[in-house]
Amino acid sequence: MFWQLNSEEHYLMMTIANANDDAENDISIPDIEGIDFVDYVNEEQLDDVMHLVGKDLSEPYSVFTYRYFLHRWPQLCILAVPSDSKDRRPIGCVVCKIDVKGDEGHESNRNGGITAEYTGYIGMLAVETSYRRSGIGTALALRAIQRMQRMGCQSIQLETEVTNEGAQKLYEDRLGFIREEMLVKYYLNWNNAYRLRLWLK
Q1: Crossing angle for the helix pair 46-54 and 63-72, nearest 10 degrees?
Q2: Which H, E and C letters describe 131-153, residue by residue?
């Protein structure tokens, strides 16, 4: 099954394709020695993404969930690949999307233009266990945040389990996300979640 892009999503894809590498408000992103950061290209990489993410999930995603993200926002899936890897199998990935408030029934501003609110969403972030604590997760998240910022997002949201202290340290302490609310019994295992948000300049 494939999803057809609506006008807002097509605009967002064109925005990132034409993004200026020297944008004034770009985030400083570190390079990781021995790791290449590459874009998701096609479904030949789908199994690798599912394998990486599936090991750490609180609840399983169907293949349709992955395809929903990857087909509509392929430019917001970034893979981390060891530079010396012969098969170019990724050891980390981040998968995101952008929600557009006002996509249906836009409200006009005083000048007659369309007012829309763009909110980024980090749906999946995973790094192979043996490659953790080397900054790869932070580098992936920062690259995704930069792209969503360039595409006009005012903020970025995500959810994480209240027991996932590692994720909270990454998003809150390193990246500046703040807790907006606690979602009671949010996951299928009945664990609670924190909804986090990063406000962009």
Answers
A1: 120
A2: HCCCCHHHHHHHHHHHHHHHCCC
Give me the pLDDT at residue 60, please: 81
Rg (CA), the chain: 17
The SS3 assignment for 157 reads strand
- In the DSSP assignment, the letter for residue 53 is H
Q: What's the chain's length in residues?
A: 201
- What pLDDT shows up at residue 106? 45
Contacts of 32 (CB under 8 A, 6+ apart): 80, 134, 135, 136, 139
Residue 115 is given by DSSP the state E
Query: What 3-state DSSP class applies to 72?
Result: helix
pLDDT digits (tens, 9 = 90+) for 102-126: 754 444 444 555 578 999 999 999 9
pTM, two decimal places: 0.82
How many DSSP H helices and E strands does the chain contain?
A: 5, 9
Low-confidence stretches of the chain (pLDDT < 50) are 1-5, 7, 10-11, 13, 15-24, 104-110
The answer to whether residues 161 and 167 touch, using CB atoms and an 8 Å cutoff, is yes
CA dihedral 124, 161, 28, 98 (to 10 degrees): 50
What stretch of H or E contains 71? helix 63-72
Which tokens sit at 140? Answer: 């992936």
